[in-house]
Amino acid sequence: MKISMYSTKPWVRQSFAPLAEKHGAQFTWLEPRLEISTADLAIGNNVVCAFVNDQIDASVMERLKQQGIRLVALRCAGYNNIDLNAASRLGIGVVRVPAYSPYAVAEHALGLMLCLNRKFHRSWARLREGNFSLDGLLGFDMRGKTVGVVGTGRIGQVLCTMLRGLGCKVLAYDIAPDAALAATGVEYATLDRLYRESDIISLHCPLTKDTVHMVGAKALAIMKPGVMLINTSRGPLIDTRAVIRSLKSGAVGYLGLDVYKEEQGLFFEDRTNQVIQDDVFVRLQTFPNVLITAHQAFFTKEAVDNIAETTMENIKEFLETGACKNLVSA
Ligand code: NAD
User: Fold this and answer.
1) Residues in the ligand 1 pocket, defined by CB under 6 Å
2) Is 234 a catalytic residue?
3) What was the pLDDT predicted at 148?
4) pLDDT band at 35 (very low <50, low <70, confident <90, very high)
5) For residue range 236-257, what is the model confidence (pLDDT) as tens digits?
6) For a tag on the chain, would you pick the N or C end, based on fewer CB atoms within 10 A?
7) Are 267 and 76 in contact (CB under 8 A)?
8) Spatial contact of 42 and 66, defined as CB atoms under 8 Å apart
9) What strand order describes the sheet that includes 26-29?
10) Which of 99, 186, 102, 112 shows the shortest CA–CA distance to 149?
């Protein structure tokens, strides 16, 4: 198997390179993202391995087909960046890693909640300046608060369990509620009720045409004043401009993001010496009650190792049998 590894970072190489011998793989390490201008770099290989911000639309698929690519192996769970219809029309398989560590992402979501609540980021910065004042650092007990979890799949379920452990009341919404989770004391509710009653809302559903801007002006209008919003799922679930208006009015009290609608042009790169051109992102960073991490919720040792191992198994299975349990279809 000859694999073009797009969006290669040092950690990608460190996790995949040791598996080359075991799986008989030859890697071509490519730093650029996969998009139309870089698709030709896949020449000479039969598999492309891509990540969350690679843009694999119909034109890229067609170019990959011309290069002899048989498989696009995503080293992530979400597949909203792929044109699956084009893949199926061209006979290119698409595989993903559906689960690698739901704990990593759920723990990160909880971390954002606790940090925003108790303002670790602000007190850390203050202490370095010799400011030991507590003014503005008042938090609240998590115990007894109502947390709304939207999407109770692998990650949402782990988060629900952790929140129950903290003594929170957990309201959940999912298009396919899970009876076993409900039996643990998590209460399923309508999305409308979840929005109205939750002190904290955390998003864990996939990006689909139904979930784009699910948190927009209409939803924000019915949320509790001062609500905390957490998004570790996909950026477009939130209408960022609408949330900024609610942050300015105080209707949203806290915002924790690990994903951002326009993250493709920002995340995963060192931009220390650049002027950030995205004014919406820069505005978000001016709020003391907004905490942003750059799509790192998945980033634990366990998750990264599982991603590499499962990706290699997916590729092997597909190339040997033409099928794979982790195949994604339109
Ligand atoms: P999952 O497939 O196990 O669960 C998703 C859940 O969302 C399912 O229960 C599904 O029924 C539900 N759902 C689908 N459409 C819905 C809708 N319209 N409204 C409410 N619920 C809906 O997925 P998961 O492993 O729990 O991951 C959830 C999401 O987290 C992924 O789609 C991905 O976008 C994101 N993610 C982010 C990171 C990160 O590093 N930030 C890492 C992994 C996954």
Assistant:
1) 77-78, 99, 102, 105, 150-156, 173-176, 204-208, 210-211, 232-234, 258-259, 295, 297-298
2) yes
3) 98
4) very high
5) 999 999 999 999 999 999 999 9
6) C
7) no
8) no
9) 26-29, 2-5, 47-50, 71-74, 93-95
10) 186
